Amino acid sequence: MKRNYSKLWVALVVLLIVQAALQVRIFPLWVRNYAPKQATPIGLAPEQLLVAVAGFREFMAAILWVRADGFFDSGNYDAVLPMLRLVTWLDPHNIDVYSTGAWHMGYNFTDESQRSDRRYIPMALKFLEEGIQNNPTVWDLYFEMGWMYYHKIQDPTNAVPWMQVANEYKDMIPARRHMLSHALFKSGRFDEAVDHWGKLFLDAEKNRGKDWESSQLYDVRQNNLEDTILDLLRRYGSNPETQPPVDLQFDATVKVVRPRVLLVEGRLGIPAIGCRVTVILRDKSRTLEYSPKALKTFTFEVDPKLTYMQDSLAVREEKFRREIDMSKDPKMYPFKAEEYEVEFIFEPRYASPNIQGRIGSDGVGMWDARYLETVREKPAPIEVPEYAQVPDTVRREVENPTREVEYKRVRKVITLTRADILMLGRRGE
Amino acid sequence: MNATFAIAGATFGEAVRKRILMVILLVALLIILISPAFEPFAAGRGARTLIISFGFGVIQLAGTFIAIIMCTGMIPTEIERRTIYTILSKPVQRYQFVLGKFFGAVSTLGFMYLMMGIVFLIASRMALGEFDPKIVRGLIMFFFQSSLLAAVVLFFSTFVSPLVNYFLSGGVFLMGNLLSSFLETIQRNPEVTPITRIPVQILTVVLPNFANFNVQNPIINPEQVLTDEAAYLVQTVVYAVVYIALLLVASMLIFNQREM
Asked: Which end of chain B is more exposed for a tag (fewer CB within 10 A), N or C?
């Protein structure tokens, strides 16, 4: 019997070592493929936590997501935010939650006049970054990040790297690949935009006639390629339509008409319909950093002391005018700082095609004696997760961007004090 | 070997006659069958997530309960009823008795998983209009998870009372499900000192890791692209087999030395 026991002891030790070795091999793969990747279940009630631990993580997440949808439908937007946190903790691989959640943060918090609260944008970017870190092998969230820059922030320069990464994924929806060309074009990287349209066109040609969708894709890409080349020839070729430059004679004024209500008006000398001037009111010397790195860790709390208003003013008959009422939303516009800057910007990158046809999408055809400035910028380096399916060349390019772009814009800044905006003293306050 | 299989057969027969296990199985089957009723709560992709995750959750929970309830009393009941003396007085070695009990438990689990799996596949086909073969992969992994848990419970049943065994096995199962997540979290946090990290690393390697078998997430979220999935699944199954062997050897060692 003793002999048998010693054999069993040896077997026990050997098996213990083998299982340990296996576990050491399995763990990195588990982390890569299956780990929940979220730290703390803050906000879950004990019974919810128990259910989650008992194998119902994803089910619990799905139920909470349905509940969040209910809150969204009833307009209770604030309640949606903690739900997002819980759902992504329970199921960090649900792509829809990250993309819809970021969209919700970026677009849906608005004031009485439907101006979005841009203090939520860095939060949306951080949320997407977390989604990307948790799902590096899925293209969707890279694209969503690019789209947030392209559409919401209107920063095509920083949209490009994210769309470049998304574009490397083979299963990306074909039509979404077009966005990289659009972003490249808007950011002034015309040569790369044409190259990308060319590649897309050649790809579509392989499947042309296969089915209706493939033929449609071919037509769209062909049209876009031709239009892009034609636009470039018209704007930048010999005898360009963008010359001589249009004198914008840009100017803007601000008047406080009631406490927290501004009347902004001005002039932009472009004789075409469709121009828009951006107006930003913010605490002096404080800008919102539109970057996932702006927040150290993810939080649903916006800075309650920061005032940041952004609106877009339509130009009609070379003039713009709008009364901006910030009196109904004290949480969004707390006016805690002593000084504020009101910034008026017209830049051509997002102007309509008829306007770009005259002044160029980089402003080469516009002139202003007082407020014209040239912006030179490079995309901010982005952090591509280790497991992203991206070739080294693209990874190096987006992690250390070198290509600088430049465009022209007009910009005027007016400084106001808190006393001016709140009309302190005039009403005995 | 015949003795082992005879004991396994008897254990299986006894287990499927146990009312409590059958009640758990029937309740699980019923719940899985009504899971398509979740469809109206969320359209399209959401419905898929709800139904598949719910089915997997029910199966995993039922498997866990069946493994614990079935195996806690296996050896202590035989001792209490003194039937073990009748068995061991025949040409049956103690190790054969332990092995027979374990194989009987695994056969029962296999039968229960087969039932639940068939119903789950039918329910998901009814609700989603498609048969997803990946579900089978998830079920197989859960079966190995429950088998490992059965081995843990059997191991404890060689030296503790059933009541203590419930808590011990439940605790080990819970720890085994959470340790990997915990280790992953503290590994990502640069502020965690080695004094905290090293004991967690040791525990993760020593304790049975039940989290390895929770592979349902990519089945529920099919967009996920997995790396070396086949290698992972094979290694995890081998891990289960090795760890079960380890626990059976430990059970034999303890049971062989036990005074009866």
From this structure: N
